[in-house]
Amino acid sequence: MASFFPFGVAQNQKTYSLADVPVTGTIPAWLQGSYIRNGPGMFQLENKRLNHWFDAMGALHKFDIANGKVAYQNVMIECESYKKVTETGDIQFSEFASDPCKSIFKKVQSHVFPTLPNMTDNPKVNVAKIAGKFMALGETPMQVEFDPHTLKTIGVSEPVPGGFAYKTTAHPHLEDEHAYNLVVKFGMQSFYKLYDVSKPGSKAIASVPVQKPAYLHGFGMSKNYFIIAAGPLTVVPIQLLFWKRPYIENHHWNAKEGAAIYIIEKASGKLKAKFRTEAFFSFHHVNAWEEGEDLIMDINAYDDASIINQYYLKELEKQDAVFPKGTLRRYRFNLRTKKYNAETVSNACIELPRIDYNRYNTNGDYQFTYGVSVHPSQPQGFYNSIVKINSKTGDAFYWHEEGCYPGEPFFQASPQSKNDEDGILISIVLDAEKQNSFLLMLDAVTMQEIARAVLPEPVVYGFHGEFFE
To answer: Which of 168, 192, 351, 458 is close enough to 10 for a disulfide, judged by CB 3.0 to 4.6 Å?
Structure first.
């Protein structure tokens, strides 16, 4: 019987490489390049199991696609956190929801506040090519550069000065030669700050003071504005000084406060407007664009932050779990009247959303959002399908295979593509019944399989990837 818990199939990644992965179906000749994905690689340590999906030591996976064939390799990301785990059998730095064992004395930090104590440098969430370098990214300010051929670590960089006084988002926005990212600075006075991380050591583009910073995993960007959508999952910074609980457990949900939306001019770095909306929580922005005096933000949002608790491994192990349903929502902010309205674009469950970013980011002509979902016919358990949502009509279309758990779908446009549907979706799928994984390729128009490359071992269910031609 297939497990509803894909992490039960593989909690620690077996590292290996294959020069020729068996392929069924036909890979289009035009699809040439490397799909590289980041994500968890080790939950079970020698002396303990980590608590949360967001805690694991990171691993990189690469599928090289050329001439209809596929090669595969993976590695654990070599950072200081991982080195300490291999040396001691336990974590020595604070992860998202797991802390190392510390005496009461060590919990009260002796160095100058607001430096965050013992923060991990484990970049386990995303990958990006920034200023010509291939980077593994997490919510830590430390980025790990890796070799795109071998996946081996080249070095660790700190693009934001004084990085360990910050947490960053794992989703920088790329535009021309720029790579913008949001950091949250904790202290007696806290700030949301925006940087161009393609230029390490540069000053902040914008800085917004905040009394109780929110947990932020991403931010929005249109052609002329940055958008910080801060839901009311917030922390009193002084609590981080004593660090009595893992990082995320210092945050509290304050629904009555609603969400704060900060809109910042890219050109000047000045705060253009601030809106207060109903409470919502979000990991991922989808797109943003401008129409006259309106700024439109599409975001993958939840009614509250309970999804974070659902991602604890002990909760994920419950086969009858019903996940809070994230949906695609649209906010229209009028920058003159300071009024807004909100609507749900589609009632379909979606997470890990992707669009045709290269061509349609900041462009309101975009139509399709792709992500993972819980299929309507099987609403219990972990994400078991890929969903395609038409943002113009709200219609949803699915790929689903019994006992399989697809990861984030990446859209790669075909050479003559004239829209954000004509192309291929690429996803790493974990097959809980067969205890292995495969690289799935779907026709994005029909949502039908065109090919799969089948691995002999499971890939630990992960996060975000990119296709590099």
So the answer is: 458
Rounded to whole angstroms, how far apart are CA atoms 142 and 138?
8
Question: SS3 for 61?
Answer: strand
Question: In the CATH scheme, what is the code of domain 6-468?
Answer: 2.130.10
pLDDT greater than 90 at residue 163: no
Cα dihedral sign for 263, 185, 143, 137?
Answer: negative
Amino acid 67 reads N
CA distance 275 to 342: 12
Q: What is the pLDDT of residues 205-233, one digit of tens each?
A: 999 999 999 999 999 999 999 999 999 99
Q: Report which secondary-structure segment, H or E, holds 130.
A: strand 126-130
**The residue type at 262:** Y
Q: Could you tell me which residues come within 8 angstroms of residue 447 by beta carbon, excluding any fewer than 6 positions away?
A: 386, 388, 397, 398, 399, 425
Position 162 confidence tier, pLDDT thresholds 50, 70, 90 = low
Distance CA 114, CA 118 (A): 12
Q: What is the pLDDT of residue 448?
A: 98
User: Kindly report the CA angle at 284 between 241 and 365, in degrees rounded to 5?
Assistant: 150
Say if residues 112 and 106 touch (Cβ distance below 8 Å): no
Amino acid in position 417:
S
194 with 180: CB under 8 angstroms? Answer: yes
d(CA 264, CA 195): 13
* Domain spans in the chain, listed from the N-terminal domain onward: 6-468
SS (H, E, C) 356-397: CHHHHCCCCCCCEEEEEECCCCCCCCCCCEEEEEECCCCCEE
Segments of 197-339 assigned E as strands: 206-210, 220-221, 225-230, 233-234, 252-253, 259-265, 271-277, 281-291, 294-302, 327-334
Burial zone of 196 (CB within 10 Å; 0-12 exposed, 13-18 middle, 19+ buried): buried
Helix (H) / strand (E) element for 183: namely: strand 178-185
**215 touches 251 (CB < 8 A):** yes
User: How do beta strands 404-406 and 423-431 pair?
Assistant: antiparallel
**Which of 86, 91, 61 has its CA nearest to residue 74?**
61
> Tokens 């506040």 label which residue?
113
CA 288 to chain centre: 17
DSSP string of 412-451, one letter each residue:
EE-TT--SSSSEEEEEEEEETTTTEEEEEEEETTTTEEEE
Paired tokens of 22: 């068996």
- What is the pLDDT averaged over residues 361-387? 95
- What's the first-to-final CA gap in the chain, in angstroms? 39
Burial of 72 per CB tally in 10 Å (0-12, 13-18, 19+): buried
Q: Centre a 10 Å sphere on the Cβ of residue 270 and count the other Cβ atoms it contains.
A: 10
